[in-house]
Amino acid sequence: MPPSQSLNNDCVVPVHITYESLNEQTRLLDNNRNISNKQESPSQSEEKASKKQFFTGILLSVLSGCLFITNNFIIKEYKVVACDAIIVRGVFQVAVLSSFSLFRNYTLFPDTKRKLGMVLTQGMFGGFSFIGALMCVTYMPVADALVVMFSDPLVTMVVASIFLGEKLNALRVFSGSCILTGVTLVCRPPFIFGTDVQNDTTDDTFNQNLVANVSIPQVGLTGSLYMSKHDSDYWTGAAFAVAAVLTGTFHNIVVPLCKEIESVVLVCWVGFAAIIISAVSSQFNSEAMIATGRITEVTQEMWIIFVGLALSGMVAYIFLTKSLQMISPTLVSSLRSLEIIFAYGIESIIYATWPSLLSASGGLLVVFGVVVIATEKHLLSLRSRLRSRNDYEQI
User: How much is the pLDDT for 187?
Assistant: First the structure.
């Protein structure tokens, strides 16, 4: 036998494949393939969870804004006394948060004088900011008040530049100018626009009927006409809004110095400070009842409003805090600035009138400036990447 033939015979391995065995192997392969398709990889599961968290954070941020706006319009429409509403809200806040802190064994009273001083300071600033934010909407339109209060990034930027040494780049100056211009167009100070400033949508006939005490047809969802005259009440509300912005800015600066204190404890002290400040200010407000010994004169309807404002305000704050934990604070800040647009839209529906061109333009400028400040890092990063790409192409 030739060597080649012997080698070939040794290497041949007989294979017997039947039709049934081939079908069985094909079926097993198909089953394995289906199982592998149904099983998601860890990266796919994490991506789905991340998307769900992202959209949930956006939803919570929007819901918190809607609740805040609704509370402001309820205070405005039902002529709620802000001091009384703050006392009820503060009592709810302190009762719930202190109980939660004790349940979690949090320390309500810090162990050192320095920590206690910081906690009391942030509580005081937070309380004043909270009171100013509610007081301003009782004197001026809700949308105008929100425009002033959402100018806080401008104030924070200036304060951080003065006290913390942060540099002002061209982008910050541009965004700050947009916010300042927007607030000016909305408030229209007398030394720029004159002393007789009112909403452009009110005509002379309406003003004459109002002065002559003539019966005026009621329009809008609430059966009332809208007139926003920039009188002493308007500027009182603007002063409260500015005070809310300033005290809120210093509150935001002090809070980072209290890193060793739980946030629940800090918010509890804000509520306690708001109760004390409201109780003192109620003594100078003839309409206040709870802290002036006339608590029995509060109607049942007003008690329902007080409790509803307290509960919805706490829910809105919880939603806002949770959204900050789920998505970027930059995105939350940008979404919250849209409350200005929502407020102008709600005012147009409730009072059956459009906002003036100056107010609408000013509101949009403030929203634009807030979004630019919130996305500053992304814009600067994009500019640096484009500059690097141009330099590379030139080489």
Answer: 81
